[in-house]
Amino acid sequence: MSTTSLPVPDRSPRLREALLAAAFTADGLLDLLGAPAYAALARSETVPALRATRGDSPLDTLVRLFLLQHPVPYERARAALPLAECVEDGWVTHAGEEVRATVDVRPYSGPEGQDWYIVSDLGCAVGGAGGIGSREEGVVLGVGGASTTLAGITVRTPVASALDIGTGSGIQALHASQHATRVTATDLNPRALDFTRLTLALSGAAPAELHQGSLYEPVGAETYDLIVSNPPFVISPGARLTYRDGGMGGDDLCRTLVQQTGDRLNEGGYAHFLANWQHVEGEEWQSRLSSWVPYGCDAWIVQREVQDVTQYAELWLRDSGDHRSDPAEYAARYDAWLDEFEARKTKGVGFGWITLRKSAAAAAGNPSVVIEEWPHAVEQPLGPAVEAHFACQDYLREQDDAALLTGHFTLAAEVVQEQVGLPGAEDPEHVVLRQNRGMRRATKVDAVGAGFAGVCDGSLPAGRILDAIAQLMNEDPVLLRDRTPQAIRLLVEEGFLEPVPPAS
Asked: Is-contact 280 347, C-beta < 8 A?
């Protein structure tokens, strides 16, 4: 798979026209297959889709050809595609009365409903409990959960320049092409750059600058407004598989990537990474990650999941299909993973998101570094919530307690209050504020906090609201003003309250 030649993108617009004419799009697939078969495809289960494509329409043909990688009759392929061009350009092969795809072409819906296509190696659309099952070093994967997660957390403000490190099949570069004037994509694997070129061309996007090499080496001293990377973050013994194994010891690749970013971001620029990190015996994982944050950058790091070393090794051995190999070989590989973890005193591996932002406040020695664990469901796309998080950090850095009490706030959209207590009790045991947007956080508040949040509509300063609450609750207003600012800070930091900009 990794040595086959790839299609050329020169006549991609003609192929794109044919795909669109046949409704070979994300919406078209859902209409044809139905929700259960469509969902099964995401799990790499193809039988329901095969049953749903037994017709002879162009869409049936294209789904079988490019998604399910089944041969289709020559005449059906000719009815669905500019077949002579596709054969000549290398998208399909023709032998006898059968036509076969040379690459996986997967419809993908952009954030504004754009009809895009992600091109990758055959059989390597990510998904399924058994992993992709490939041990080929140069394989290039298609779109999967990690890819869409990274795309969703990325801040999408218009920028002059964007860099996608470890571009793979090009999904992050494709997203960036919609809001960046210039897009650069790099990868250690030259085949990945070829696939990115195909993905962009077939999706009707502008071409990117493509460079081969590791991390920041291919781009020299260039700086960017946006940097994204879904790197080969797997912590493994050796670097057997380019698409996933970092090739450095432990979590050094992710650490190096993050630490080198400070010199590559322009002022106000964002960097978004997916990463794995070690949980080392005798060391707080938060301290470990705090040491990664480069000078001049604010950071928000969210740990989404932690696996013990046995779970982690089994996950990635299944990913490469080693669980289906000779039992003795599988046991030896498993043993090697555990030897590696034991030598590094690693007791678990965390997975999550790292977002950096270059800021003047951080450069002046007052960075905002938030490191937290949040394994619960969030609302994607999360990019607006990420941008709001850093805006709130800016606001809070500039406000002492006295200034905070002169500020005006509004309750964030779709925050609800829950009262928890025994049935029939006069008063609840506690009150919970819960978000239905963004991070979907929940936080326990006292009666003052609940009352304060409930009346925040931006019309009154915080201090005036507290004075009114003090009068209602027969409390000393001075004491209430003294003890409440920290609670207000927390509600702002976690997105329950939004500061109202002062009138100009």
From this structure: yes
Name the phi and psi angles at 438, rounded to 5.
60, -125
Q: Who's near 454: CB < 8 A, 6+ residues apart?
A: 411, 417
For residue range 361-415, what is the model confidence (pLDDT) as tens digits?
A: 999 999 999 999 999 999 999 999 999 999 999 999 999 999 999 999 999 999 9
Comparing CA positions, the residue from 242, 240, 231, 198 lying closest to residue 104 is 198
pTM for the full model? 0.94
Is there a contact between 371 and 463 (Cβ–Cβ < 8 Å)?
no
Characterize the bridge pairing of strands 497-499 and 408-411: antiparallel
Residue 401: both structure tokens together: 């307690």
What b/e sequence results for 294-308 when a residue is b if at least 16 CB atoms lie within 10 Å of its CB, and e otherwise? bebbbbbbbbeebbe
Cβ–Cβ < 8 Å for 200, 208: yes
Cβ 197 vs Cβ 89: under 8 Å: no
| pLDDT score recorded for residue 240 | 72
Residues of the chain with pLDDT under 50: 1-2, 126-133
Instruction: Produce one character per residue of 398-434: b if its CB has 16 or more CB atoms within 10 Å, e if not.
Output: ebeeeebbebbbebbeebeeeeeeeeeeeeeeebebe
**Chain segment 236-262, per-residue pLDDT in tens:** 987 677 778 877 889 999 999 999 999
Closest CA to 499 of 416, 414, 391: 391
Six-digit token string for 108: 């993908």
